[in-house]
Design goal:
Layout: H1 2-19, E1 24-34, E2 38-43, E3 48-53, H2 55-59, E4 69-75, E5 78-87
Parallel strand pairs: 3-5
Antiparallel strand pairs: 1-2, 1-4, 2-3, 4-5
């Protein structure tokens, strides 16, 4: 029984990793709004990145303004660009 549960837990972990293949999520604050739904975001570690809004946020008309706290996904291939995936209230 315990072995079956361990296999189930590992399967769930692998499925979660497959969804976000090597993506880094980090919090930040929007510094300025740029054209074409791009934003300059200052991350909690002090770096500034260029980020765009994710498709689901566009679909649901979630507005992002300067000074908003957001979660940004960074690709391990280009750490200077990201995608805004969540806005805190």
């Amino acid at each position: 029984m315990a072995n079956r549960r361990a296999v189930h837990d590992m399967t769930r972990i692998v499925e979660d990793m497959a969804k976000k293949d090597g993506v880094i999520e980090i919090e930040g604050t929007v510094v300025e709004a740029l054209p074409n739904a791009n934003f300059r975001v200052e991350l909690t570690n002090g770096h500034k990145v260029l980020a765009h809004i994710s498709g689901k946020m566009r679909q649901h008309y979630i507005r992002i303004l300067p000074e908003d706290r957001v979660v940004v996904e960074l690709s391990p291939y280009d750490l200077s660009r990201g995608r805004i995936v969540f806005r805190y209230r």
